[in-house]
Design a protein that fits this description.
The structure is a homodimer of 211-residue chains. By secondary structure, chain A is mainly α. Chain A is built from 13 helices and no strands. Helix content of chain A is 74%, strand content 0%. The first copy, chain A, binds a DNA duplex (30 and 30 nucleotides) through α1 and α3.
Chain lengths: 211, 211
DNA sequence: ATGCAAACTTGCGCGCACGCACTTTTCCTG
DNA sequence: CAGGAAAAGTGCGTGCGCGCAAGTTTGCAT
């Protein structure tokens, strides 16, 4: 019950943040405004979110982490773990609800929001590690955690590649300086391309536990 | 020449931050103090560092990124890429200079500093991606970037596992909740264990370009 | 029902990150 | 060598993150 109200407040903050951001533009909204719209004090606000951007982005990302983990767990035990992970990730990232896609356009226009959005990929690491550990029956080594973290960063890279064309010019410049040129395609393509190099690592880990 | 003075200021700030942190304790030092000790204004300080912790940690990590990349490039072309990366990483992380190790003890005692220290692993991603791209002759796909980023997070995981025993109890609790129990060993062991699962991915990528 | 303990919220205050406008230094070019 | 442009450093103001010490609500047990 205490937890109920907690989540209600969180949801109110999320929605208020997104609504105000859409109305007045992301830069024209202060924490004070969000808090007021949600009916709490500014101090309470950042008991829930560490930054203004987090609140806005969180309205879009919601609890994607849990959905991805659940989707992987739902796949039959027979399929390759690498495929299960890839499909679950692609599925959950293309299913942006009605309101999700319009908000995404807003996010892609502001650098600060894009970074906050990219930071959410780190959040999938723990749930992913849990479900992978379960599949591999590996509780002793770093294997599951490393694979989970690798997936998280691969997703991040895919999103970066996808957001690139919208980004400003110097960002592309710093990339070219790194010697990396990436043709941007659709989001699912980007995700699959980024996850593909990790498949051999999953296969090896999977074979070690189930020969 | 302009770059010269820039690096000199950076170095002065690094050293001042570390010295003051050791003298008065990391929490007892303000940005103002660091800036004064380095002979610049507080405003200039955070043209160089985004946070107080970054400055302190940076005195230890210096430019480890460049050293790792250089170490990989220095390995003969015959050896497995996975081995080259692993050895280079282990080498550069065990070579903490005279002053490095005493400062590490300080870092491990404060949570904020440990997090800043762990964040430095992200910095090796770009140099690593550059050198891996070079080895793989792969400039079109995400492969090199994904592998580089995976290595970076693997290193982070290894460092987390290594710092764990020093950490507070609830951190260990949240880990157990994730279903992960890791026996902590020496730093080189942790690094090798964390990088091992990625070796198949490197092998596959390497074989694709040089059959 | 009533009291108690834990947890959530709130007001307050300090230091810090960072944008903006300005001064000083450094470098280049005629 | 002089002058001007570019870059580094500085002062100032604003909003924010967060610790601390209350006040308030929730849940449990008596």
């Amino acid at each position: 019950m205490r937890e109920r109200k907690k989540q209600a407040t969180r949801e109110a903050l999320r929605e208020a943040a997104l609504r105000l951001a859409v109305e007045h533009g992301p830069d024209r909204v202060r924490v004070e405004d969000i808090a007021e719209a949600a009916g709490v004090s500014p101090r309470t606000y950042n008991n829930y979110f560490a930054s203004r951007e987090q609140a806005i982005v969180s309205a879009v990302t919601a609890d994607r982490e849990a959905r991805i983990a659940a989707a992987i767990a739902a796949r039959p035990a027979g399929v390759r773990l690498a495929d299960a992970v890839t499909e679950a990730v692609v599925e959950q990232y293309t299913n942006t609800g009605e309101r999700g896609h319009e908000a995404l356009l807003l996010i892609t226009t502001r650098t600060a929001l894009r970074e906050a959005f990219l930071d959410t990929t780190a959040g999938i690491e723990r749930p992913l590690a849990a479900v992978i550990t379960d599949r591999l029956d590996d509780t002793e080594t770093h294997t599951a955690r490393v694979l989970a973290a690798s997936v998280a960063t691969a997703v991040r890279i895919a999103l970066e590649g996808w957001l690139r064309p919208t980004g400003n010019a110097d960002a592309a410049g710093s990339f070219e300086a790194g010697g990396l040129v990436v043709p941007s395609g659709s989001l699912p393509d980007q995700l699959r391309a980024a996850l593909a190099p990790l498949a051999p690592a999953f296969d090896a880990a999977e074979q070690r536990t189930q020969p």
